[in-house]
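ugh ok fine here u go
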Amino acid sequence: MRFAATVLKASTLALLLLTFASMPLAFAQTPSGKTPAVQEPNAKYAPEDLRKLTQPEQVRVLEAQFAELSGGRPLPEDQLEFYLEQIPRGWTYAQITDDMTQSLRDRVDGNTYAGTPSPPPPPVRWTTPGWTNQPPGRGQIVACESNDGRYRECATGFRNVPVIERQLSSTRCVEGSNWGHRPGMVWVHGGCRARFIESAPVVGQLPEVTCQSVRGYRECNVAFRGQVELLRQVPRSSLCVEGRTWGQKPGVIWVDRGCGGVFAEAYRPSGGFYDADDYDGFTMDCASLDGAYALCSWNARFGTPVLIEQYSRQSCIEGVTWGYTPRRGLWVDRGCRAHFGSNVH
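structure:
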């Protein structure tokens, strides 16, 4: 009897141990066997106000959401850069999701239809006389004239700031008053007529500096006097985000966390002709991502839009890289990204 009781106790104990061994230790580990970590924000648990997240968290959320919407495709870097610019301006998670969805669809006459071909790009129509197929090249002189005092934009093809080579009008041309410029274009108004040339027309005279972080923080000395812009990333380097993985101090560009880029002194526009305070009746941002043609849902009730501020390094020129028709709507092309507005309330 004593032996049988001992055997029974041993069998019961073995059965209990076997039962516990087969149960998942959920309190100690995850199904994968790894100790659970603090959950990071992802597309399913992202807050509506993405400003509550750090920028690395914003990047993870945006990349995860785009991958989910696109079936695993990576989020293009210029599209990611555009969204990171919009978050401080108040774009919500829902707005960015809607924009991602829109960018993944084909666009026809302002509406979206799955499976339909994209509309052909608008015909090239340079506003500068004499160039019908290509914008003027660097080093060339561009004439831009305000006849009868009317506002006019002229394509230049310049990457650097234009300067007046010769004034053609009796009206004095004053920068910021009756003429100005953005990347790739000049505008004139109020009778100003002049010939413009790029301030540094030879490619070799435009200094570019490559600065790369290999094992952490690094500083590179530069001779730039103004703001610096990232022209392009070094292949296979980590994502470069201004203020996070690169920035500038007087006479220095710094990079960190694997960021590698080619930098140059930033283009300094003289300002647009249209004042944002006068064109705040209805405003919206419209972007050509990956250089693709895109339509934006401008409300025709507010009339014809005007370009208030250009975000992109690629030139935004009316009739060339952006335009508007009541039937088709507001369109952008070839990398133009800008803020548009109307003075109709």
